[in-house]
Amino acid sequence: MTIKGKAYIAGIFEHPTRHAPDKSTAQLHAEVAKGAIEDAGLSKDDVDGYFCAGDAPGGAWPMVDYLGLNTKKLRHVDSTETGGCSYIIHLGHAAEAIAAGRCSIALITLAGKPRTGAMPPRAAGAEADFESAYGATTHNAYGMCAMRHMHDYGTTSEQLAWIKVAASHHAQYNPHAMLKDVVTVEDVLNSPMISDPLHRMDCCVVSDGGGALIVTTPEIAKSLKKPLVKLIGHGEAMKGPRGGKDLDLTYSAGIWSGPRAFAEAGITPQDIKYASIYDSFTITVLMQLEDLGFCKKGEGGKFVADGNLISGVGKLPFNTDGGGLCSNHPVNRGGMTKIIEAVRQLRGEAHPKVQVKNCDLAIAHGTGGLLGVRHAASTAILERV
Amino acid sequence: MSEAKKYPAPVTNPETAAFWDAASRGKFMIKRCTACGEAHYFPRSICPFCYSDKTVWEEASGEGTIYTWSLMRKSPTGPYAIGYVTLKEGPSVQTNFVDCDLEKLKIGQKVKVVFKPTDGAPLPFFTPA
């Protein structure tokens, strides 16, 4: 059984806020839910499936109640928590549920306020006594990946910087982006070192905000007014140090989620016109591009250099909203906004300066957790009908 | 550098208590599976490779090489270097590097275990050999 073509993304909404000290987290969830439902042209009472992750206050049942969803109709919930890629996994799970007839209109929400206040720590796993004292953070966990990637493949800070440069070229056209200034490779290299070898400009922003999706059946999607965007392939995977055997931090679980998604879609990376790639850090993008098969392992540095990711300039336009590196990173989780910008591109709703011509195939890929420690990855391949 | 840093005491549990008891005596332990022969870290009762429950404690040499590292420069408690050490016995372990010039760490460098006190059992760290 496949989910290929069984589910369409009929509604999207990205919260315009980047700083929301005057709002509650639940309120942001409600605002993005309302936005996505209205974008689809539906009513909240139509929703019969709800998906959320660890950012939803209290989890699924308090949220279903708070959002006022129609509990006589709601018949499927999923609160899979895999960090930043949770929402890409939710998209696949929603398609599975729709294909199995378990729901027909699924709502997925993400929202939170890490810029206003620190997020609560994640629950400890069995490794806690053997790791927590060592202070793994996003910065240094991704720094460890970059350090080893440079060692094994000769990847350079200049090459990583090109990823930020490309993001900044796109962000200049996004009125909501936190960082709208176009930057150069030198700007990135001259920004302060945060955790070797990652500079400040190798790191994404911290922002409040959120986003939501409506996923539905082909029949319902065709009855609505939005351009049709269907899910044709999906993959998810996890990776960790696995008892410390054969540790290799130069690849991610994307090496498994990507091929699964491409195989289901029946296409190859060369067919992709636009790529949303989670950019928590520049190294995240470089490793994901290799893992997804856009270039060979170790050649990501060469692939991203010289503007190859800039829309209208390079071969693979990526993160045309400015991504996490420049636009936003709601709840420290980039998966949702990756899907939303991919849908905009397929609908032809991206900013004209960054809109990819004849964009009919797009990928939205993300990771969650710490790439250098243990993490999840999820890949979605979307097609304009 | 990190001499004044206070580290949290391990909570410990029945599965890992023997590790911390040994640490208190200055011994760095790993687990080895007698069914498949593989060593692993952090210690589990069930072998993560073959699922045998025939895992036994083994004192490791405490010697290894740096697999990777990153010097965290922006921290309220001061700079610290996190990394992985690949032990002589095979498994790679997450750790911090201590008692050395953190700017001069190198992948492939030889390191050895050193324990630092907490309010409970001491924690293993690594320093250049």
UniProtKB/TrEMBL annotation, chain A:
Organism domain of life: Bacteria
UniProt keywords, alphabetically: Transferase
Pfam families to which the protein is assigned, alphabetical: Thiolase_C_1
Family matches, as NCBIfam families: PRK08142.1
Annotated Thiolase C-terminal domain residues: 245-383
Keyword check for Signal: no
InterPro entries cross-referenced by the UniProt entry: Thiolase, Thiolase-like, Thiolase_C_2
GO molecular function: acetyl-CoA C-acyltransferase activity
UniProt-listed CDD domains: SCP-x_thiolase
Protein source organism: Bradyrhizobium betae
Name of the molecule in the record: Acetyl-CoA acetyltransferase
UniProtKB/TrEMBL annotation, chain B:
GO MF assignments: DNA binding
Stated name of the protein: DNA-binding protein
Domain ChsH2 C-terminal OB-fold: 57-116
PANTHER family assigned: BLR3430 PROTEIN (PTHR34075:SF5)
InterPro entries: ChsH2_C (IPR002878), ChsH2_Znr (IPR022002), NA-bd_OB-fold (IPR012340), Thioester_dehydratase-like (IPR052513)
Superkingdom of the organism of origin: Bacteria
Coiled coil: none
Pfam families recorded: OB_ChsH2_C (PF01796), zf-ChsH2 (PF12172)
Residue ranges of domain ChsH2 rubredoxin-like zinc ribbon in the record: 20-54
UniProt keyword annotations, A-Z: DNA-binding
Lineage, highest ranks first: Bacteria, Pseudomonadati, Pseudomonadota, Alphaproteobacteria, Hyphomicrobiales
Signal peptide: none
